[in-house]
Amino acid sequence: MSALISLRDVRKVYATGAVEVAALDGVSLEVESGEYVAVVGPSGSGKSTLMNILGCLDVPTEGTYSLAGEDVSTLDETRLADVRNRLIGFVFQQFNLLPSLPAWRNVELPLVYAGVGRDERRARSMAALERVGLGDRAEHRPGELSGGQQQRVAVARALVTEPAMVLADEPTGNLDSRSTADVLALFDELSRLGRTIVLITHEREVAERAGRRVVVRDGRVADESMWSPA
Ligand code: ADP
User: Fold this and answer.
1) Does the beta carbon of 17 sit less than 6 angstroms from any atom of ligand 1?
2) 15 in ligand 1 pocket by Cβ < 6 Å?
3) Which top CATH class is 36-56+86-224?
4) Does 46 contact ligand 1 (Cβ within 6 A)?
5) Whether residue 14 has its Cβ less than 6 Å from ligand 1
6) Do 171 and 151 contact (CB within 8 A), yes or no?
7) What does the domain layout of the chain look like in residue ranges?
């Protein structure tokens, strides 16, 4: 059985005028299905670049990325969008909820893009809200929910397509300590239920909850002992 995520010798080079920056400089990484992994490292180390590649928002300059058995290193934008929608549930620092829509309509959006019919969308988005403990807030708009509740709606939206992995970018970066605890408890629960979670963070408290830490330094994966929080 191959790993869910397999990166081999990935480089990502940005050219700004005459200057080239290798944001990732030979990253190899495997994540098995069901793992809970935190990607950590100081600012500028390449975490966002790695997140963009793992999330199929960008492709490597060199090297290969295989996700759930598919080589996604060289896909064009249309096919990347298809992979994102089928295999990845995203959670962002800023929640990225549409303010005019009630919670359940935010949660059903990935199913709209996937062409799922209306009744099934409603049933699945309600079930996803139940799963994050917000079944009774389905009709609330984001502005009527706390930060922690908004992020739980975003997690429900990430789960509604039953993705192969949940990819979270600083998911607690905008939350107070109580809401952070709330969202981390939810990730713990999802992990116990066998979800694959990859989260990017610079916070030690968050990283320590994951089953494994991948430390990024100067565009490479470093030994875990190299990590000191920013
Ligand atoms: P982190 O998320 O850990 O702060 P990034 O992945 O954002 O790190 O950046 C890694 C390196 O790549 C930095 O030196 C950054 O300046 C550079 N970089 C990131 N994105 C771009 C870009 N679009 N163009 C040029 N350089 C970039």
Assistant:
1) no
2) no
3) alpha beta
4) yes
5) yes
6) yes
7) 36-56+86-224
Among 11, 13, 40, 48, residue to substitute to test ligand 1 (most atoms within 8 Å of Cβ): 48
221, two tokens: 């994966």
Decide whether any atom of ligand 1 lies within 6 Å of the 200 Cβ.
no
pLDDT, one tens digit per residue, over 120-178 is 999 999 999 999 999 999 999 999 999 999 999 999 999 999 999 999 999 999 999 99
Reduced to 3 states (helix: H, G, I; strand: E, B; else coil), residue 69 is: coil
Task: Using CA atoms of 102, 105, 107, 109 in order, give the dihedral in degrees to the nearest 10.
Answer: -140
3-state helix/strand/coil string of 111-132: HHHCCCCHHHHHHHHHHHHHHC
pTM flag (> 0.70): yes
For residue 222, list its beta bridge partners: 215
